[in-house]
User: Fold these one by one.
Assistant:
Number 1:
Amino acid sequence: MKFALNVSVRGLITSTGYSVEVFFWNHNYSEIDRRRMNKGSHVLKKEIGKLSHLLELSKVIQYLKDREKKEGGFSFAPELYPDIEDTYYAVRILQFLDVDVDRNNTANYLKNINWKEVGFPRAIYMLVYLHFSLNIKFPPSLTGLLRKDWSRFQILNARYFSDEIQKLLDQPLKPLNTLPPFQFQTHENLQNLRKKVAILLDHDINFDRQQIIRWVQLSQNGDGGFGFYPETTSYMENTYCALEILSKLGSSPGQIDLARKYILGCQTKDGGFGRAPISFPFIESTFHAVSGLLLLEEMEGGDA
């Protein structure tokens, strides 16, 4: 299967790359972002207010600021160099919490990326998001990566991130040429299942939603977190994936309070969150935690 992205954006492509208008930000893929755009900014502030009663948001923000570099970008430890993944997740968290992002610093970091080390769909999507959401001009190196054939990559990742980029740029999705790789399989892990559910929903393909809801709910453990699949150890990334799937399918965990307790129990004294209780914090895990808590608030509010 061939994945080559259609990257013309309403005629805004230029000889030096994209000139992207900031209003395209409204097409971000996230389930949380979609719901907020539909419900309004006052609901966003209400959700953030609820979170402030559960944890000290100032500690989360300070955790991120301590990992922001003077030259731009973020790293998971203050003494390390910035990287694409941590910068992406840090920016997403700050945007969720309605905190200003230093656009100039981030633009400086992106300008100095070694593009020879960028190649996988996930990293390409993150770079598209950062340039796009902060209204930073697309460099030729990035547009070149978007035009490349992604068929050499694992099919699920290639299709998922291809779709996410198309949605972000307000472009129509390319039709699926085959269905089996995106169907639910026995002992499906939640991280793959999250991508499959997104693809099936985005392409309006019928599937047994209740079967998937039951599978996800069975993956919740006694500690409130979710394993990779039923009867496996809880981790933050699995918990986030489970909540995202259930939210998209209009459902919720069997034990919402326990899920919230598990997430809150993963916060460290530095303000960030680890993959599990009593573990080292990561910016990615912190993104999963904040996203998960927001999804739980929406579910309890009857909006899931």
Number 2:
Amino acid sequence: MTPLRASQPGPRRRGTLIGVRLLVVEDEERLARALKRGLEAEGFVVDLAADGPAGLEAARYGDYAAVILDIMLPRLSGYRVVQALRAERNWVPVLMLSAKDGEYDQADGLDAGADDYLTKPFSYVVLLARLRALLRRGAPERPAVLAVGDLTLDPASREVARAGVGVSLTAREYSLLEYLMRHHGEALSKIAILDHVWEAGADTDPNVVEVYVGYLRRKIDTPFGRRSVRTVRGVGYRIVDDLAGGTGRTGSAGATEPGRGGSAGAGSATGSGRTGSAGATEADQTGSAGGAGAGRGGSAGAG
């Protein structure tokens, strides 16, 4: 049995929500029973599952506020369970609880779609605090792979694809696309994009954003006959699913223009059919119009 650390549930129940349903997926019976007793003493309602398929089935249909999930489970690992849930757009908060304490084990769990990771042996006080934090956040959409229509971006592998075809981006283009996709449908100003994609405090001309939007369009839109990156007059840019039939308007000032190519003279490669890893093999442009040769693919690097 993997022991709990010395701190055990006590009479004080700070912020615990009475009657909140939790699922514990753990194959060590004694640990599972100990967790159930301790959590129920805090006011939670707790169900148990002893292997991966049973845990996945329960999480799919059980309407739980959160799931405590072991990794080394019989028949289906915790990694596979959380990946399956996220692939089905099930956003139930997942806290992984595992004896696998390597940094790459933890990174793999979080990249698979888990919201938190706690190693065994663990502090019961810390477990409760992390559960309360998960419950405060709720269950908004937070996919492990970002998608806008058939355009996908995987932050873990830094791979980008359009309709399954890999697209090779420079590091700066990748950062710009990730920021747009994390705010898809929203009109983002050039200043907001500069603040999030370029170095803080750098004296960068806002027109560099227009240049890089042009580079990005030439890689993710033009080769595929698409126009997902839209210009919003007087505001900036937004990314939309152009096959959904909408204009992508969100009520911001200005009509959405057709996707134009950005600044004149930006002569980047399209990158279709390449590996899709974000990187840079060329020097990153500083923002003057007419910069040529941006956008050739490579391994992740400085942008």
Number 3:
Amino acid sequence: MTTNPLANIRIVLVNTTHPGNIGGAARAMKNMGLSRLYLVDPKEFPSDKAVWRSAGATDVLDDAIVVETLDDAIAGCSLVVGTSARERRIPWPLLDPRQCGESVFNEAGQHEVAIVFGREDRGLTNEELHKCNFHVHIPANPDYSSLNLATAVQVISYEVRMAYLQATEGNTLPGHQWDMPPADAKSLESYYEHLEKTLVELDFMDRDNPKQTMTRLRRLYNRVRMDQMEVNILRGVLTAMQNYVYYSGKVLAKFGVASGVDALRAEALADKSTAPTPRTEAERAAAADAKVQD
């Protein structure tokens, strides 16, 4: 038994019609660190189309094992999970992709495991699904749940890899150093003061009755944990907004229009009140008849 659990996981494709889907599945597997591909009675393989769609994952294709039956593909496996796009008449133990990834990885450290994918047009038969310990269902959009075979392989393989990373590294992301230091408390406080002042100038917020606006904005930014460069960029945006408001007000003043959103709103309402009242349908029809008679 290999010390790498991923090497004990088989991806099994049953009666695949299009060789491109085999190549796409091989690519998805290699992306996620899986390498053992089993093909049950494929319509066309080997194939140049499969090689082209694999985008460099030719080693997975070269090592693929072609068998005649599903029984041959899952021989020696102590856990078999079959993909199912719909509920069956007889309920079966059902996993979502995340649960599938965790179960498959955990058991792959102990024995051989197989994840079985069906035909492009109709999936796995009931008889084939009955050979599986669990079924896994990808909860796609119910109004459009048709997944490409390689896409389905990618989804499940991704969840297996996430389980692997969590178990081996305690984290799903590689460790890295941030490129800028985090913003300190003083910088953040200055930013919040700048933000509040700008929102007041835009008439977005009433300084005397701010409600919970600034509290919620502080919570938002604190959750993000901005770095110093990000704070500088955002303060630059605020300054640009303030400059626009200031210089727009000076231009409007030349035409005798007061600056500020409230003043512009009042001006617009005044224009609307002096606008001619639209004619009714009957008045427009009468005017049209008069024009014809003329």
